[in-house]
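Entry type: protein chain
Record version: 2
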Amino acid sequence: MGKTKSIVTLLTDFGTEDGYAGAMKGILAGSQADIQIIDISHNIERFNIRQAAFALINYVFHYPPKSIHIVVIDPGVGSERKGIVVELSDQFFIGPDNGVFSFIYRHGPFKAYEIDEKSLGTHISSTFHGRDVFAPAALKIIEGKLPSQTYPEIKNVISFYENYEEESESDYILKVIHVDHFGNLILNYTRSDWESFSSPGNIKLQIKHCFLYGIKSTFSEVEEGQIIATWDSSGFLQISQYRGNASHLLHMNVGDEVHLKIERP
């Protein structure tokens, strides 16, 4: 059997018209290794770290072990912010330490390492670390130089994820952590949070002056235009409008609160 290809995914806010993503791919392609480069997207909204963090959690765990995921949404490039490599679930994540891996950190034990730029042996632009730091750091891993052998481990990393607040045994305050392409309101409450209760009971969501009862399995359980609560494909509770845009209809965005009441028997 031949040697397995190294998989490198790219997620950035670079767009495609200026050649920035192409420059990163050129660095990776210049290696002697057999690398499969996968463009996830270069159309993340400019500087939108939260959008990238949510996009990342939706695809990374579908990739084979040892895959490398480079994420470059980096408004702090050239500043004191660290460049890091994160190891989690037998995968590698490379990018700035600015919260872009916030959702990843919730998926089990991880180790984070600060990239030593001097060890890369290249000229480093103060404005383009995707090309000069993160792509070369990926090549080091592909060459067999593990982060634990190359960089110092760090214990504190930046995460913007906030857990829901518990007001009582039955009342909770949730927050909108993402609004997706369809206008679904993604909340900081997961199926595992729900299933952690020994007797979950019935659920009531208060959205401003409106109430939703129960969590539906599919959108089609309600009439077109109605608001519905479901679990999204990554296990987050979401509020949606069937064939509509819940964010627009409810005038809600990231950071807005939703009250959850669990009515137990």
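Comment: The chain has two domains: 6-154, 165-263.
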